[in-house]
Amino acid sequence: MKSPVFISNLTGKLENFHAISTNTLSNDFCKAMHQGTARRKKSKKVICVECYSWSLLEGFRKNVATALQRNSDLLSSRYLSKEELPVIKDKQFRFNAHGELINKTHLQNLVDITRHNPDCTFTLWTKKKQLINRFFSGAFMYKRNNPKPSNLILVYSNPYIDDIMYKLPLFFDKTFNNVSPDRFLDEQNCTGQKCKDCLLCYTHNNTTTIVEKVKNYGKKT
């Protein structure tokens, strides 16, 4: 049986990577963050205003949004059966190249995919640390135990620009931080190389703080 989950072929700095993503444009959390209506620190600029995914899916990759919406609907509405889980042959794999966690059902499906493919290391980017905390601490009432899989790397996507987060939230392995191009130059360790040639985010290692300069993705400055 072929899995109904859509797997993206990534390009640019993520060339040769594959991902399971969802539609940023229909995600209520993403919409609120991108439009600036989410509650946040007034003194801090939010990276979601510069969202690359939003720009791409509204622009020349509108056709991709349709496939990603199918993932949004599927992964957030019910638990996939074992037969529906995709078989991943990659060594490293990305969750959320586009989009954000929708709900606990979405997260459970990603965890099940991770467990179904023990020889692959999966990296999940998310800003929803409360959902992660509740899920892996057992706050939700599940019939099954939900320890964090050893082949899952959780990256907390810091929403605030120029506010590097060094302390890891509970259950997270790394933080990903965006800074202005002319700030924190000595700490920028995501500097434009291909991810396949770096793998700081995609392997268990001693680097827990990732820092990248903000990109404008063709916007006029």
Helix and strand layout, with pairings?
Blueprint (H helix, E strand, L loop, with lengths): L7 E2 L8 E3 L7 H8 L16 H7 L3 H16 L14 E4 L8 H13 L4 E6 L2 H9 L14 E6 L16 E6 L29 E5 L8
Helix pairs in contact: 3-4
Structural features, described:
- Helix 3 packs across helix 4.
- The protein starts with 7 loop residues before the first strand and ends in an 8-residue tail after the last strand.
- Strand 3, helix 4 and strand 4 form a beta-alpha-beta unit.
- It has one domain (8-213).
- Strands 1-2-3-4-5-6-7 form a seven-stranded mixed sheet.
- The chain is 24% helix and 14% strand.
- The mean pLDDT is 90.
- It has five helices and seven strands.
- The chain has 221 residues and is α/β, with parallel strands linked by helices.
- The chain is globular, with a radius of gyration of 17 Å.
Which class of secondary structure composition applies to the elements? alpha/beta
For the largest beta sheet, what order do the strands appear in spatially?
1-2-3-4-5-6-7
Count of individual beta strands: 7
Helix content: 10-25%
The succession of helices and strands, N to C, reads: EEHHHEHEHEEE
Q: Give the count of helical stretches.
A: 5
Strand percent estimate: 5-15%
Task: Estimate nothing, just give the exact number of structural domains.
Answer: 1
Give the end-to-end Cα distance, rounded to a whole number of Å: 49 Å
What does the main sheet amount to?
Answer: 7 strands, mixed
Averaging pLDDT over every residue, what do you get? 90
3D shape = globular
Radius of gyration: 17 Å
Stretches where pLDDT falls below 50 for ≥5 residues?
none
